[in-house]
Task: structure prediction
Amino acid sequence: MSDYIFWPNELLRKESSFENEELIIIAIKLEETDYVVIAIEQSSILQDTLNLEYPYTILGNRDNQGNWTINIPHFTIVEFEVPKFKMMQFYSIEPISLILPKNNTVDNPILKKIPNIEKLISYERYKARNYKLNKTIDIINTYNSTLNAFHHSYPMIGKSKENNSSGIISLQRWYTSTVIHKLTCYITFYITFCACYIAYFGSHFLRKIVPTLLRLSATAKQIDLRFQQICYFPVQYMKINQTKPQGRTTSEYRRLNDESSTKKIEPSCKFYPDYIRFYNTLWLIVNDTSFGLMLGAVLHDNHDVIVNTLSDVIMTTLYEKMIEVTYSLANNPFGIKLNHELASFLSELFYWIMEFSYNSLIKFASDKEKLSIFLTFVTNISCIFGASFGISLIVDFFSLLSFHIYLFYHISCKLYHWQLNTLISLFYLFCGKKRNVLRKRIDYDYFEIDELLLGTLLFIVLSFLMPTVLSFYASYTLVWMTAVYISVFLNSAIGLINHFPLFAFLLRIKDPKRLPGGILLLPKYHKNGRVILKLHNNPLSVPAMFNPFSHSLGKIKEYYFSTVTFKNMLSGTSIKVQFNELYDILYLSLPEEPIDISQILSKLKERLPR
Amino acid sequence: MSSEEPWSRLLWIKQKYPDNYTDPDFIRFMEKMKQKREGPPIIDYDFDQIRKDSLKFYNIFLNSSFIYIVFTLIYYYKTDARYLAGSITLITMLVSTHKNKELTSLLNIKSSFIIIFTLLTLSPVLRSLSMTTASDSIWTVSFWINILYILTCATSSLSPSPHKEDIIKHEASIFYDIKDHSNNKPSNLATNLLLANVAMLASRLNTTTDVFCFLLIAIQVNIILPRIINISHVKVASTSSMIVYLFVGITIGYRITLIFLISSVSYIIFMPKLFHYWQVHYRRRDYEILDLWDPRTPVVDVE
Result:
């Protein structure tokens, strides 16, 4: 197996500057990495210290004719651009995760069905084989600090990059020592402290005390989400700041064989996704608020028009039209002659529900004064807290108003489902068959006359009543599905506002190297019959960035726009707005359980300037 | 191939024979078939049996027409259904006292109570059930259900090849031996089709009493009585024929009755002969091979 030698581009440039001189190559190689070239020096310099300590080795040399000799037999050279760590560029084998990786290893639902899949996955053979490459990529990512460490231990070789501290940095240093800074820090900390505690208890209240409200109301869900985000901010902040790029000491590299110290060489870019998530959330909140201001302005400007139209629309669609539909169902709709007794009974029942909901809800909702107050409230909320809150208030208002439609749908659905199932079993009886529970199939059986008589008469009665129930079910299902689709549309709008990968998207446009989606090794040119490879950064693709969102869209499609939904409708299985499923996307960038806020805050307190 | 177990023509049994194994029986059978085909046709069909089966078909048809007779009487001629039901019930009682012991096994008190109460409960519901449906569609549906009934009833009760002695025994008495369940039980589907037909027709009647009486009569005439008495018996068949022809003659007219009579007589006389002729001359003999060597469907558990 040939070794890979990773060769930074800047050393190539340096090499070309030393014409007709003898050079040696110094590379670093840890236990489980490939060679990474860190220096090319004139061989005269190295006369004094011929023995380099582990992990540094002399890889090869060049004579004054410009011919290279490499000390290892088989090798491939890979050129790479040193990532600018200060610019937050880095390489990564795995695509950077924009959502918080959850603990469950198996996500694929098909794989989940295989027994012992967890064990299989943890088996060595199925693990990713690019452990070595991963480690090498780590060294490449921290190339500058590695270089600094090398210069620190061998000051005579080459020159360390000068730490030119400019005036801004000295100003910053001066500022951090003043009282104003201290005061600002303390004030910020205590504001954060208060906000976090309020958010923590608010979220706790919603989750533990009124979980039903959280399940039913979009606004409650939105409030909970915001609380969770606020609780999670300090955690993210700590994660980002504890791993600021620092110069590594040589001792760290010396003790590399120790198990404990290898863990220390964790890539600093590990918490980089947290950085992206943190700023993405912040940006989204700001964005949400600006959208909210826009929405609020629009609502405010057209206040009277909206109130008038809405009042009319609520009155006609939710009350008058429903009455009309129910009336026509009771009186031979489209000339279809339904069973009069059953139809009039059902329509009486629905009238009754309608009157109840009219007296308790619709009368107030369509009242212009009250509607105006509500609209002002929505306007204010969306101006202060953001468009997502405004929209979720509208969603809740809508679901409250369409509750009687849900009741109609639910009642007719239950009736239809019950009748359909009874008809199917009675049809088996009609054919002289019976469901075999033990073998789960339909078997022939012999029935007595009384059983047959009862079954057949019931079958006849039910099949005569079926068209009536079916027509009620079909019309209310149509109305309910319209309501569901409106609700789903608004909910996906909230999801989009809350989870648009805005920051990542802008980052992708600005500097694709900051958003790695993998690496790419491409042949660059031939040199002495060798192919020289070049390490490229393969930026995260745009569809991959929208992966969680498209996943959620797929779920919506599966629930509301698929043949399964249609089959469910036919079989009379109840269809509901799956709030929890729709909101999954919102929580993707948050931990599943609320963070214990007091611990985090005490940690944060330790970092305050004294 | 030395094996103790004989080869059997079942794919789902693991056998010690190779896949392309041909049973010597099969070749012998094929040779026999070939000889048979070359020789003159052997008449081994039982003409009596064919005649009996087609008569049975005719009898079922006659029996089912009683439903329509009773319905016409109640619906069209406004006959008091209570007298009709009473007389039919009396006849059933008389017949059943004749075979009292066996009747208890067929219709115990519990199930007759269930029947009565079901009829009483569902009669008002049935009466108002098809109010909005047009009568013509009910007649059409009833017609098709009745045809289905006759077909299923006839095909399910066609005996494959009963022994001669059995036939003679059945001929001998009007009453069935009820313990002998082999022959006189129609399939569930046939009974259900009949009940559906009756219920549909009943939903057209005007009063609840009519509905109840009609259902009771139909069940007794078409379900209970055929299980007790042999409708193929000459006396029974001729009595029911007489009633039907008389009724048709009185209600529709003698010309149509005459056409009806001629067609049924010609059916009874010529149909068995025609069928027999077809069996002897045109029926494919390959069926005999297929009968023995057709692909059988294994019974496999769903799980």
